[in-house]
């Protein structure tokens, strides 16, 4: 921690992530006191305070700053009860940071529309998340993937890869899957990704819809497992 390491020719320094990103140690505060060697400070920890010392230090030094909300402004616009803490945190701190930044990075134009609806006038640009294409150029054959999943050949497969998070609206996916007919009635739905508090609800929903025998929760998968799932998926 706190010691530079080489990552593909880039000098990277790791610091302790305290309190789930809401805390930072003195080593990080010391490290960002002088940011004169950097032309730009990019902070992607929008809902955590971990990037705050670097952002403030860059502002004091007169350097350029970029913030990335990472699609989370939709939580500020939401009027649901469980988004209250996001709205509060935004009003207390995050809006001020967005207005103080030199630019805001969005990953999609829809996210930029959320910012405009909130009245933000900070200059912005849109760059989608990068995808490492090399790992998708040699996917395994579908028969191999079906065998690894223990499925009969030619089983129609619907796949979701990502975290099991409320914002993914996976309950809607399960309800839509339950309405499949024809060849789709034999399909299997696989949800691959870590649980962010939705797994128990989704399992109960699948059971209540009568599709629990055709829905599989496989948890977090590595790059190889993801490749096999993508190779087998029809949708």
Number of helices: 9
> Which parts are unreliable, with pLDDT below 50 for 5 consecutive residues or more?
none
Structural class computed from helices and strand pairing: alpha/beta
Query: In what order do the strands lie side by side in the largest sheet?
Result: 3-4-5-6
Strand percentage lies at 15-25%
- The overall pLDDT, averaged over residues, is 88
The rounded Rg comes to: 22 Å
Please describe what this structure looks like:
The chain has 235 residues and is of the alpha/beta class. It has helices spanning 26-31, 52-61, 73-77, 84-100, 109-117, 142-149, 170-178, 199-208, 223-232, and strands at residues 5-7, 10-12, 40-43, 64-67, 103-106, 124-126, 157-161, 188-192, 215-219. The longest helix is centred in the middle third of the chain and has 17 residues, at 84-100. It starts with a strand and ends with a helix. The model has no long low-confidence stretch (mean pLDDT 88).
Keywords for this structure?
3-stranded parallel beta sheet; alpha/beta; 235 residues; 9 helices; globular; 15% strand; single chain; 36% helix; 4-stranded parallel beta sheet
Short description, anyone?
This protein is an alpha/beta fold and 235 residues long. It is built from 9 helices and 9 strands.
């Amino acid at each position: 921690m706190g010691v530079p390491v080489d990552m593909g020719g880039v000098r990277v320094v790791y610091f302790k992530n305290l309190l789930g990103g809401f805390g930072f140690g003195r080593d990080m505060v010391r490290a960002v006191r002088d940011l004169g060697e950097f032309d730009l400070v990019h902070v992607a920890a929008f809902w955590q305070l971990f990037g705050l010392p670097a952002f403030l230090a860059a502002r004091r030094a007169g350097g350029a700053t970029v913030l990335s909300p990472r699609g989370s402004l939709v939580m500020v616009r939401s009027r649901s009860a469980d988004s209250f803490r996001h709205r509060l945190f935004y009003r207390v701190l995050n809006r001020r940071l967005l207005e103080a930044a030199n630019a805001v990075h969005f990953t999609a134009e829809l996210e930029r529309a959320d910012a405009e609806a909130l009245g933000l006038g900070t200059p912005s640009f849109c760059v989608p998340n990068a995808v490492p294409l090399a790992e998708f150029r040699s996917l395994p054959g579908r028969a191999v993937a079906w065998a690894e999943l223990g499925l009969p050949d030619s089983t129609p497969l619907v796949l979701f890869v990502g975290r099991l998070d409320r914002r993914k609206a996976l309950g809607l996916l399960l309800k839509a899957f339950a309405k499949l007919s024809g060849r789709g009635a034999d399909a299997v739905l696989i949800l691959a990704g870590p649980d962010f508090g939705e797994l128990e609800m989704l399992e109960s929903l699948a059971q209540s819809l009568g599709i629990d025998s055709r829905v599989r929760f496989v948890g977090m998968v590595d790059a190889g497992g993801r490749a096999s799932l993508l190779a087998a998926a029809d949708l």
